[in-house]
């Protein structure tokens, strides 16, 4: 992370546990539990919005489901997120940890389980956190057995900035990747030609997250519009192209860098259920929404 802005771990959990997670994800998908990844526009003027109107399926083609881990049939996904929590907690609290020492990580989102159903589905170049919403680390776990990118595509391409270096990450089974969530790592999912599964969680820096929530509250007090507080929502699924960089033409190209925010509408009165996730050496405290909360209209930290 210090040198390249990303880190790849292969054989993270082993074949047996990885297959159990894959089976849970396949069962959820077969049951019709996934929905289209949506696009939510940032707060900006109507004039700005009109210049960047793009069909959602031209930007992203994945289908998603949010998982807290306490839902029926998700125990192995819960185990996965627990193990990722343990890694993040340990490296964030260890001595001489470089850039990670600048952050205080004690919260994360729920797990976003995503499926690209083949047929060239993709996600154009974007940034997970261009607007300082608190997310500092993106962690993605892949579940694709015998993946051959030369035939199936689906590469995660990261363009660390500054510079012209490109990192192409194949979504291989039991592979875990970490990278900075902000503008240091624009990335895209290139067209996938077979079903491609991934599970993503985002980790928050305490200070930046508090500042973002305070900004949202201030904006709400100015507009008296609870829905407008939005922008700090569950960083799921939902991205919107930056008004100055994405046009309808640009969005059809997977090679055009484009900054996109990941946020949905925050319901001001939505309550969250605090939870503590075991990390092996301590607790990573997270406010994880209970399973009854609809992921599409809440924040889950």
TrEMBL record:
Metal-binding recorded as keyword: yes
Domain Fe2OG dioxygenase: 107-205
Top enzyme class: oxidoreductase
Cofactor: L-ascorbate
Cellular localization per UniProt: Nucleus
Bias kind Low complexity: ranges: 237-264
Entry GO MF terms: ferrous iron binding; hypoxia-inducible factor-proline dioxygenase activity; L-ascorbic acid binding
Biological processes per GO annotation: cellular response to hypoxia
GO cellular component: nucleus
EC number: 1.14.11.29
Name of the protein described by the UniProt record: hypoxia-inducible factor-proline dioxygenase
Organism (species): Drosophila mojavensis (Fruit fly)
Lineage: Eukaryota, Metazoa, Ecdysozoa, Arthropoda, Hexapoda
